[in-house]
Amino acid sequence: MAEMAPWAANAWYVACTPDEIDAKPLGRQICGERMVFFRPRAGAVAALEDFCPHRGAPLSLGFVEDGDLVCGYHGLAVDCAGRAARMPSQRVSGFPPTRAFPVVERYGFIWVWPGDPALADPAGLPDLPWAESPDWVYAGGLYNIACDYRLMIDNLMDLTHETYVHATSVGQKEIDEAPVETRVEGDEVVTSRLMPNIPAPPLWRQGLIDAGLPGDAPVDRWQVCRFSPPSHVMIDVGVALAGRGGPEADLGDKVFSIVVDFITPETPASHWYFWGAASRNVGRPDLVAARREAQGKVFAEDRAMLERQQRNLDAHPGRRLLKLNIDAGGVHSRRIIDRLIAAEASATSASSAA
Amino acid sequence: MAEMAPWAANAWYVACTPDEIDAKPLGRQICGERMVFFRPRAGAVAALEDFCPHRGAPLSLGFVEDGDLVCGYHGLAVDCAGRAARMPSQRVSGFPPTRAFPVVERYGFIWVWPGDPALADPAGLPDLPWAESPDWVYAGGLYNIACDYRLMIDNLMDLTHETYVHATSVGQKEIDEAPVETRVEGDEVVTSRLMPNIPAPPLWRQGLIDAGLPGDAPVDRWQVCRFSPPSHVMIDVGVALAGRGGPEADLGDKVFSIVVDFITPETPASHWYFWGAASRNVGRPDLVAARREAQGKVFAEDRAMLERQQRNLDAHPGRRLLKLNIDAGGVHSRRIIDRLIAAEASATSASSAA
Amino acid sequence: MAEMAPWAANAWYVACTPDEIDAKPLGRQICGERMVFFRPRAGAVAALEDFCPHRGAPLSLGFVEDGDLVCGYHGLAVDCAGRAARMPSQRVSGFPPTRAFPVVERYGFIWVWPGDPALADPAGLPDLPWAESPDWVYAGGLYNIACDYRLMIDNLMDLTHETYVHATSVGQKEIDEAPVETRVEGDEVVTSRLMPNIPAPPLWRQGLIDAGLPGDAPVDRWQVCRFSPPSHVMIDVGVALAGRGGPEADLGDKVFSIVVDFITPETPASHWYFWGAASRNVGRPDLVAARREAQGKVFAEDRAMLERQQRNLDAHPGRRLLKLNIDAGGVHSRRIIDRLIAAEASATSASSAA
Questions:
Q1: Inter-chain contact B165–C53, Cβ cutoff 8 Å?
Q2: C28, C62, C254 from C41: Cα distances, Å
Q3: Do C72 and B173 count as a contact with CB atoms less than 8 A apart?
Q4: Are C310 and C147 in contact (CB under 8 A)?
Q5: Which residue among B57, B89, B95 places its CB closest to the CB of A312?
Q6: Do C57 and B308 touch (CB under 8 A)?
Q7: Which one of C312, C313, C320 makes the best mutation probe of the A interface by having the most chain A beta carbons within 10 Å?
Q8: Cα gap A228→A188, rounded to integer Å
Q9: Number of alpha carbons in the 13 Å side-chain half-sphere of residue B196
Q10: Residue A3 has what pLDDT?
Q11: Would you call A60 exposed, middle or buried from its count of C-beta atoms within 10 A (0-12, 13-18, 19+)?
Q12: Residue of C nearest to B315 (CA)
């Protein structure tokens, strides 16, 4: 599947959140692979192919016992490395192994490496200071979205859509009117937009008020979207009272957060969208919960649009789309993905030749 | 798609009713084309391909502004003719046009021409006197039906099915027993049946009573089905007190209506069925509403049968069906459709050659 | 379809239960054939292809009249042998026949022969003494299951799965620990397991109590699964007070029943599962009903597992599975099925050649 798949396999993807595997194993398809995630013991995590070598039952229907995952059909126990550990009245030494996937728990997520295990290095995980600092607080959710994951990257790397898709929350015409700047920094793409001296849109107006600032004051608004391979998009967003320095304003003059988007391919036509936001920890879990709910509604608007867009593209497979300056973020991000896929394919064929 | 499609493209089809586009744009697939219908201004109507040339989002998720349709994803505005009109911070002069479809509002319906716009002439719309006369009143509805639209034409051009499918409303064994006559008149097909001196079936019995006539009197019943290309079927139906002249009886001795069927292909395996009836306007909207409800139930019986028939035909693709005398209406109608399709194909290849 | 199909066609399969056809015709797909079952008269049963030769409507939407099945679309009446019997205003003598399937009512089931009618002999029905004896009582149900019918045979011929899939009802670790013996007897396969001197699992504990025996007494438990072509599995199950002779113990020292499984292919990827149990008739319909309900829950657990297993196998079509000693029952049963299919194919080609 690797050579035709529209994603890089040798990369860390967010697979799930810890709460999804605390009580029992979780079956989830990631980058075309059906996987089962489980905790062999408290604090540990493992990922195997979700396929029992005995009769093909999904291991995710089983349970954990003595650190191994026991198939819920006939009791074959498989260890974290995919080795057949035991089975009642059977000698399992000759049983074929189950594929194991490198997996790491960090930053409040379970990360999986769908490709070559020999290349998996936790040092390659992104650096997410907000996830490990008591000064920040994170809240988010998960949507399964029936479209190519790259449509979501396009979406997040061009926030002019907020004016239309999110007209009642974060959209405002001033987004379209502000120039956008896109630059490529190695394997990352940054798209940024500054909107000086504008009224705050509804969600930011509420943010100002929550912070004790005047909601109707003119603000300098910013949006800095950063794509990192394989498919993460972090967006610095905020508003500062106009003329106080924008993103560089004093803490007391601005409100801001990091929109966090981990976009994990499920199949070529669907993906897992781990959405959320990190904001300054001001000891107000009620505000965090309210913003998470508001953000969930905003991203549900994206989901509706993207799924309809995908169906439209499916109906017109040969149609070329426009690539405007506002699309540069998505275009460059896709180029980086394509480059990674090509490099994997070339490494695979070189190693096959050798 | 044109050469394989089982429908004529150069024809007027009913696309929707005005109420479906009054509040916001309507996305609807017709003859395999995904279209968006909207009102650029009060009283006007336009139809475009439902595909934004920017990123492929459905334009039907957008809104109308200054006579143009604005895409709900990133704000590209397209005018009625499909030209890119404007987009925030963009020069749109080089944008590719969106396909526009000829569209007309008449007779209480929006009509669309899916084929070559150069051939679209509103003069080709059918002549529907009942739709423009205060002496008549129309009521109807819309079903999406999961079968080839030609199965619906077959159904309507052979009313012997009423005896079986609509046994409790308009069916009666006397339909089967009466001889049926089918004739071809140019591009139209007429199937007619006269049933002299029979009891009225339940729905007509009610009609007689509503008109102040005896429900249990013997009647002369008639059914005259007329197919017109591309896929309209109008059926003159009625009962007169026996021996008073049947269809030619005095107004006071008969009850009658025109069953109106606009059958619009959606895909090769589904269609939009605009069903309804025109009847004499006697200032009784309550009766019109009651008959509309009764008719909706009758046509729901057809829907159930036709969808099951389609699944059966799909399961036996090579199976030949019988063509009896009662099937002549459908057979001749299909021949006319085939002739129109062939003529379009031949005109297309001639123009390609030239 | 025959040569590729994964089932024997020249065999008796359970099609339905009498109550399913008492009120009106029943449409059901069996071994890939869409069939309609009906009672031409009280006590009689017939099966035809569910396809009207007139316009392809499903005959199962029709009704029985004078011993014939009348199509619910336009009234063609077809007799039990598939001959067109009559149609209003039509001469039907030249109408093509509808395929008729040999069908028999026996043992409380309707049995159908999807293959060559010339080979259908009711003498080939299985011998089911419990179904005709007042000493026994039967209760069961029907599930449509989205998997290859052979996965259900595998399931029933290896009851180690009870420990895992049915942990709360009939499962216990002692099943896995007891040796299993599999033998082939002509066209039948028998897998048996004896579990001496163990505690009874919950369902059997209840059975002991219902019979006035101590639920917590040690028991000798037995399971004897018998596969018969084309796809029936009968399982002798029971527990006797330990040391009283197991299956041979006196009636007063044991409780037992016959688990009855008729597994009828619908399509290559789905089947009809007629599940049930025969037990001694002790004049307690309340107990029979309670056990039927409990058994329905147990088999719903199988359904969930098997449908997920099928989806997993579909996702990994080339993957080889293990064949352990516990799988011998299924493996041998499949060999017998394969042999029957091959014999049919060879007979067909021989007769084609001749």
A1: no
A2: 20, 15, 44
A3: no
A4: yes
A5: B57
A6: yes
A7: C312
A8: 5
A9: 6
A10: 44
A11: buried
A12: C34
Spatial strand order in the sheet of B46-49: B26-30, B33-38, B46-49, B100-101
pLDDT at C307 over 60: yes
State ipTM: 0.94
The model carries a pTM of 0.94
Instruction: Residue C319: list chain A partners with CB under 8 A.
Output: 51, 56
Position B354 confidence tier, pLDDT thresholds 50, 70, 90: low
Q: Which residue of A has its CA nearest to B71?
A: A164
Q: Is C71 on the interface with B (CB under 8 A)?
A: yes
Tokens encoding B88: 């925030």
Cβ atoms of A343 and A230 within 8 Å: the answer is no
C-chain CB neighbours of B173 within 8 Å are 88
Q: Are C237 and C257 in contact (CB under 8 A)?
A: yes
Q: Which chains touch C (3 or more CB pairs under 8 A)?
A: A, B
Question: Could you tell me how many residues make up chain C?
Answer: 354
Whole-Å CA distances, B36 to B71, B84, B99, C155: 11, 15, 11, 52
Which residues on neighbouring strands pair with residue B239, listed in sequence order? B221, B255
Average pLDDT over residues C8-28: 97
The secondary structure of A39-91 as a DSSP string is -SSTT--EEEES--TTT---GGGSEEETTEEEPTTT--EE-TTS-EEE-TT--
Shortest Cα distance, chain A CAs vs residue B274, angstroms? 25
* Percent of chain C predicted with pLDDT > 70: 99
d(CA C203, CA C222): 14
CB burial string A245-267: b at 16+ within 10 A, e below:
ebbebeeebbbbbbbbbbbbbbe
Encode pLDDT of A146-168 as tens digits.
Answer: 999 999 999 999 999 999 999 99
Which residues have a Cβ under 8 Å from the Cβ of A229 and sit 6 or more positions away? A8, A11, A187, A188, A336, A337, A340
Closest CB from A50, A53, A74 relative to C164? A74
**Number of Cβ within a 10 Å radius of residue C222:** 22
Taking alpha carbons only, the member of C155, C37, C52 closest to residue C103 is: C37
Q: Lowest mean pLDDT: which of A63-67, A167-171, C6-10?
A: A167-171
User: Does A56 have pLDDT greater than 80?
Assistant: yes
Amino acid present at C293 = E
- The tokens for B4 are 């394989």
Residue C34 near chain B (CB below 8 Å) = yes
Q: Is the minimum CB–CB distance between A88 and chain C shorter than 8 Å?
A: yes
Name the one residue in this structure whose structure tokens are 């046009």: B97
Domains of chain B: 13-124 (2.102.10.10), 133-342 (3.90.380.10)
Q: Decide if A154 touches B, using CB distance below 8 A.
A: yes
Taking an 8 Å cut-off on Cβ atoms, the answer to whether A58 and C309 are in contact is yes
Whether C106 has a pLDDT exceeding 60, the answer reads yes
C212 touches B at CB < 8 Å: no
Within 13 A of B270's CA, how many CA atoms are on the CB side?
A: 12
* B77 close to B48: Cβ distance less than 8 angstroms: no
Query: How far away is chain B from the Cα of A224, in angstroms, using its nearest Cα?
Result: 18
The stretch B83-95 carries a mean pLDDT of: 95
Model confidence at B353: pLDDT above 80: no
Cβ contacts from B onto C, under 8 A: 65
What backbone phi and psi angles, to 5 degrees, belong to C335?
-65, -40
Write the secondary structure of A187-203 as one string of H (helix), E (strand) and C (coil): CEEEEEEEEEEECCCHH
- pLDDT (average), residues C165-185: 92
Residue in B61, B75, B89 closest to A308 by CB: B61
For residues C95 and C77, the answer to whether their CB atoms sit within 8 Å is no
